[in-house]
Amino acid sequence: MSCIVLTVNSPQAIIIHHHHQELWCHINQDLDLNRLICHFSVKDQDLFACVAAWDAQPEFLIKRITSFAQAYVRVHNVPLLEAELTRCLNTINNQHTIMI
């Protein structure tokens, strides 16, 4: 079984490590639109891709990040990735950097 490691780095970034690949997920909150937005990058290079969800429904953001990660870093253990993303998003939320 392959190992997925997620870490919270900086106030609003989650790093997905899988098979010697890194995918950075930069989480921002757009207060005007009431949305959570996640931009993706690899090695400080913007992938010009993002996903968004209503800030009242962070589970949709987690599903969208998972979908992108499945395609980009070939993560196959979706339940584990979703659980770890939820944990990381809660950590970010507990640091009061975004409001869910």
Number of DSSP E strands: 5
Distance between the termini: 33 Å
Tertiary shape:
globular
How many helix segments? 2
Strand fraction equals 35-45%
Radius of gyration: 12 Å
The helix/strand order is EEEEEHH
Strand order of the largest sheet: 1-2-3-4-5
The helicity comes to 25-40%
Which structural class fits the helix and strand makeup? alpha+beta
Mind describing the biggest β-sheet?
A: 5 strands, antiparallel
* Mean pLDDT level: 84
Contiguous runs where pLDDT drops below 50 for at least 5 residues:
none
Folded structure, characterized:
The chain is α+β, with helices and mostly antiparallel strands. Helix 1 packs across helix 2. The longest helix is centred in the C-terminal third of the chain and has 17 residues. The chain starts with a strand and ends in a 6-residue tail after the last helix.
List keywords for this structure.
single chain, 100 residues, alpha+beta, five-stranded antiparallel β-sheet, 40% strand
Q: How would you summarize this macromolecular structure in one to three sentences?
A:
32% of the residues lie in helices and 40% in strands. With 100 residues, the chain is α+β, with helices and mostly antiparallel strands. Helix 1 (58-72) crosses helix 2 (78-94).
Secondary-structure map:
Elements: E1 4-9, E2 13-18, E3 21-30, E4 35-42, E5 45-54, H1 58-72, H2 78-94
Antiparallel strand pairs: 1-2, 2-3, 3-4, 4-5
